[in-house]
## 1
Amino acid sequence: MANHDDNLLRKIVAHAKEYGFVFPSSEIYDGLGAVYDYGQYGAELKNNIKSFWWKAMVQMHENIVGIDAAIFMHPTTWKASGHVDAFNDPLIDNKDSKKRYRADVLVEDHIAKIEGKISKEVEKAKKRFGESFDEQQFLTTNGRVLQYQEKIGNINDRLKASMENGQLEELKTLIEELGIACPISGSKNWTDVRQFNLMFSTELGSLADGANTIYLRPETAQGIFVNFLNVQKTGRMKIPFGIAQIGKAFRNEIIARQFIFRMREFEQMEMQFFVKPGEEMEWYEYWKERRMKWHSILGMGDDNYRFHDHLNLAHYANAACDIQFNFPMGFKELEGIHSRTDFDLKAHEEYSGKKLQFFDPQENKSYVPYVIETSIGLDRTFLAVLSASYMEETLEDGSERVVLKIPAALAPVKVAVLPLLKKDGLPEKAREIIDDLKFNFNCQYDEKDAIGRRYRRQDAIGTPYCVTVDHQTLEDDTVTLRDRDTAVQERLSIRDLNERIEALVSINTLLRKL
Ligand code: GAP
């Protein structure tokens, strides 16, 4: 696993731009905050992640179907879902630096600093006690650690209370009492805390006709809820069943940094699983396990994932957790798994006046199903893949390389076909091979520069296999197949290439492990 630090994130951002994965949006105009464009390799990687998710969800579950709802929805949708009234972040400005922050994040960062102090105490004690060190015992008995923990507990309680009750003055008091300073100006000269709704709005129709304000959806989930009956009836779905969707979502994020981790326009892959009330906890556990398995089979290191239970549950949830990934900035949310009760469907029933219920023939009655939701950010998954796969290595021959060890099934280009020389009929033979492989794989042809430099270029974009065509190829129809990760080459017949590469790079090979 690559070394995790800010420096690594900077390297990934630079590499992603240099090699056509991610560009700042409208860069010729100096970009747009927290909006990014995916380049030629980025688009391929993104498509492969989508396909891996879609196949795992829809194709591999008889009782899950996929839809593609519109981004614009009737404005009442967002009233019913609670987003108009409650999809807010508490904002605070520093009067000296004029920088804007999320008030709750300032407090959370402060808590993280105290947690850092606890980690330091643990490290010190580890060194002091060596083999005999018992971390659990230390955490529950060391006086200084207990003091830090108590402090964190108090801050958390006050943060939770002020957020839940919308007590913005209390949040400001907390920031002042903790002595939190602006990271830019170093001053503690804060404005009051204000609520800021994260939804983008626009007008539908011409202003002259009395246009309606509508929102760009902040989550794809509501497109699924409002179509619950349409899909259930037309698909003759029986509970339990799921509806999956991949699509854009928009949030006017206040703190938009950390590259594609937090964007204003991003993509979600969401699945709502409708279950019988009372059975939701069983399904919640099932989906936790299934989703973690999906991450695990990518082979990016099980240690890089962990569950993080939500202690402060949203009003509609009766259980919720995140799957966190070890990003260069540390463990952060990659996916959310939520038991959302019947909150959304009931709210839409109330606001629309239409019944959104399932008639259960076994029970001989109708009910509003409960929902387990799995919601993962496509862009965050993309960043997770780049973070886990970016490596700087020295090869056996002493040469240096930057390589993206992207899981082969997700790699943008699966195979590069390289004639050793630009003459003697080798380019023609290489083209012949591509003409056969291109129906199954995204291939690339490259004849420029020495073969070593061409391998480096493929390493940098994460191509898992390079086929090299040399003079022996012309004699016996064999080529060398070079493995990106080990740099080991083997000779095999052109006849076997398709099948061999298929087994190594196909999404289906991964899915069989699910
Ligand atoms: N329907 C539930 C929902 O939207 P969420 O935790 O707000 O829940 C789900 O978002 C996932 O969407 C997150 O785990 C994250 O991966 C992704 N996500 C949320 N906001 C994002 C943003 N501003 N930029 C990129 N990804 C984001």
Note: The chain has a mean pLDDT of 94.
## 2
Amino acid sequence: MIKKIAVLTTGGDCPGLNSAIRAVVRSGIYYNLQVCGVLRGFEGLIDDQFIEMDSHSVSNILQRGGTILKTARSDRFMEKEGRQKAYDNIVKNGVDAVIVIGGDGSFRGIETFTSEHPVNVIGIPKTIDNDIYGTDFAIGYDTAVNTVIQAVDKIRDTAASHDRLFFVEVMGRDTGMIALFAGIGSGAEAILIPETKTKMDRIIEILERGWTRKKTSMIVMVAEGDDAGGAYKIAKEVKKRFSQFDTRVSVLGHMQRGGSPTSADRVLASRLGVSSVEALLQGRTNEMAGIVDNKLVFTSFKDVVNKQKDFPYELMRIAEILSL
Ligand code: F6P
């Protein structure tokens, strides 16, 4: 029987983590469970950094970026010895189950962990990259896309005043999800992503078309993992063949990981937080909670880390039509 649960955040941070922590703590208390937090993700499991949590400890955090529990990437948890220490501390603290708010790297570590030790774990997906299998949206993604759109709206003002072409680089080491959604949402003339091969000739064609149509500004949205290189490299290449516009580069960087979560992220985090606690009480373990077609689903960690999420390629066509 589950009497005490622990919650932790691990991997890169994102907006909405605090909303998820609050939901886990409050629903745990609602179901008469003891709840504790673990600081710095898996590192805190290994270093025995468990803190008791009550309803008051999650007051006034729903709307805050970052994570009150802190987060870290843990090399030690990738080692058998580290995982053994983590397990020993879970037992020592009387914890019956753990809720891990993390990304696919963290779930890979957890899959190994639960194959070695008898621990009940439910995962909650978070990453601004939105590339986790088993959920349509991961916590943090909606906020990051909105942050990029707000930034590009501002860049558009200065670009239009100066008749400039801007290359805006956004996060997405392995995926162009942010670039695609923010690109459509901000009316980018071209969107370059790792999922498709970047054709320089096509970009030049689009930019020349914009020039002919007397556009006063143009935006090329570049995902950091694009095959043609980062925004600076691509801008240099383009400049050699298209010099009609004065060109500037803007790399948005870690501002995309901060800020107050949007309503979509707050609701998603709240829903997944409560559902994870309920899942543990129903005897579920070794699964990640997610939302697919607006329904709650659970996917085994094995599938989460081994299967590839579908990419919405049809949106690239929409973006191209609208970039006229
Ligand atoms: O969370 C994933 C991500 O946003 C990637 O898109 C990006 O490359 C990475 O984080 C950067 O993270 P950090 O600076 O924390 O290593």
Note: The longest strand covers residues 164-170.
